[in-house]
Amino acid sequence: MGFFSTFFGTKQEEEMTMTTLNIGIILGSTREGRVSPQVGAWVKDLADQRGDANYTVIDIADYTLPLLGESGGDVSGVPAWSEIIAKQDGFVFIVQEYNHSISAALKNALDYLRVEWNNKAAGIVSYGSVGGARAAEHLRGILSELSIAHVRVHPALSLFTDFENGKDFKPAAVQAASVEQMLDQVIPWSTALKTIRK
User: Fold this and answer.
1) What is the pTM (predicted TM-score) of this model?
2) Within the chain, where are the H helices?
3) Residue 182, CB-side half-sphere exposure with 13 Å CA sphere
4) 3-state SS assignment for residue 126
């Protein structure tokens, strides 16, 4: 009896480990003085409390990704970028609005890869003067082209009410519930899409 319980217990644990999702929280800005690391850490803290996936903050600034197609650029970071994105089953994009759109760094990082993005799900957490809504809408078009299914719920953070002096992230209490609702969609969609990548 002990043998069988130990065997099946171990097998169950292995199955759970095999089916645990990897969700990358991608920081979409690389500029000096950015606040995306604060937002990403907040999302990760909320997500980790759920216990439903392995959540990892992925910072574009940690990879050497020169302008795509630029001759003579140092592309040494591209293999590592490809590897970390390929490992993920889904994403949460931390998106800031730059001139009514996403940052050049995020667009460039997205453009470097294709199959690594395909058939995965994503949520968007944006911020800006109007909650980063216009950047999020631009990002949705790009994600669709990369065959990333983006969920409807979209936490939108205001520079006026969720940040102190535009620098220190102090989100309104309601925003945490919005992140939870977004993840409630990202997790099942990521689970479903994982089945078609096998």
Assistant:
1) 0.89
2) 2-19, 36-48, 78-86, 104-111, 133-145, 174-194
3) 29
4) strand
Q: What is the pLDDT of residues 168-198, one digit of tens each?
A: 999 999 999 999 999 999 999 999 999 999 7
Q: Judge contact between 66 and 109, C-beta under 8 A.
A: no
Q: Which CATH number fits domain 22-194: 3.30.230.10, 3.10.180.10, 2.60.120.10, 3.40.50.360?
A: 3.40.50.360
CB 46 within 8 Å of CB 180: yes
**Cβ of 115: how many Cβ atoms within 10 Å?**
12
Location of structure tokens 């500029």: 31
Q: Please give the helix or strand (H or E) that residue 27 lies within, else none.
A: strand 21-27
Which two tokens mark 169? Answer: 């992230």
